[in-house]
Amino acid sequence: MDNDNALAAMAAGIERTNELLQRVLAEVATTPATHAVFVDAGYVYAAAGRLVAGTEDRQTFDLDAEGIIEAFIDKARSLFPDSRLLRVYWYDGARRRIHTREQERIAELPDVKVRLGNLNASRQQKGVDSLIRTDLESLARHRAISDAVLIGGDEDLVSAVEAAQGYGARVHLWGIEATEGRNQADPLLWEVDSQRAFDLEFCKPYVTRRPAQEYGDGPVPSRVDVHFVGARIAGQWLTTRGRDTLAELLPSRPYLPPNYDQELLVEAEGLLGISLRGHADLRRALRDGFWDHLTAQL
């Protein structure tokens, strides 16, 4: 008799499990497929800039973000014709996570969500990969997406891919063709469900190299004048970028991180109206003026 009760209880349990599975399958069948696009903007700028303009320096070219985002959306629609777009997530860095004007314009685009990591003194993005992982995992866990398009190349994104796949989402890695070698980590390429790379012809319409600044043929300034300009720029940067950001530069004195050194040079040449590229002594005076003012203030 005990065996009969046990068998009856087991049969009832199996029947309840089958009912639950049928309900889940019915729900899945009636739920429309949804996809989202996750864009590491730092990767897009660097890879597209290198491919089209021959440089990763964002100061030297313009990227039509609206145009390339629309192109990504169109490509996703063509690949997932029976799926609706949830939104595009655009991940970028900014000092103290304050939107730049360009990032504000991107944030105003329909179906686009801008998410900001921090930008340190060396202009390196911090926290972007963790933002991507959090969003990708959360959306997959809540079954808000069935497919995720990831545009990036950092190996740190592998954990984000694994997390999303663990909840049943398919992850498709898109990239931009490298001029040589690869610009996406091998472990990331191995982990995703599919891969796609955009070539020069695809990227060309969205990248425009800025014209080189022209300078007059005036007299070469003195070291004192250049030193003053360096100090003036340091004062401006303290106001616009914040003391904490520039304080991170102090351990590298007398050197400046390459990106900052290039910005300092370009800004000084604009103020002086003459190129300093062939004047190593004046460039030293420029840095000296910058450092003297910065250390006096900090």
Sum up the structure in keywords.
alpha/beta, 7-stranded mixed beta sheet, 12 helices, 18% strand
Plain-language structure description:
With 298 residues, the protein is of the alpha/beta class. Helices cover 52% and strands 18% of the residues. The strands form two sheets. The chain has a seven-stranded mixed β-sheet, sandwiched between helices. A two-stranded antiparallel ribbon has the order 2-9. The longest helix has 29 residues, at 2-30. The protein is elongated and about 105 Å long.
Strand content: 15-25%
Q: What is the H/E order?
A: HEHEHEHEEHEHEHEHEHHHH
Helix content: 40-55%
Order of neighbouring strands in the sheet with most strands? 5-4-3-1-6-7-8
The structural class is alpha/beta
Q: State the end-to-end distance.
A: 87 Å
Produce the secondary structure layout.
Blueprint: H1 2-30, E1 33-40, H2 41-53, E2 61-63, H3 65-79, E3 83-94, H4 101-107, E4 112-119, E5 125-126, H5 128-141, E6 147-151, H6 158-166, E7 170-176, H7 186-191, E8 194-198, H8 200-203, E9 207-209, H9 223-241, H10 243-247, H11 258-272, H12 280-297
Helix pairs in contact: 5-6, 9-11, 9-12
Give a quick rundown of the structure:
By secondary structure, this protein is an alpha/beta fold.
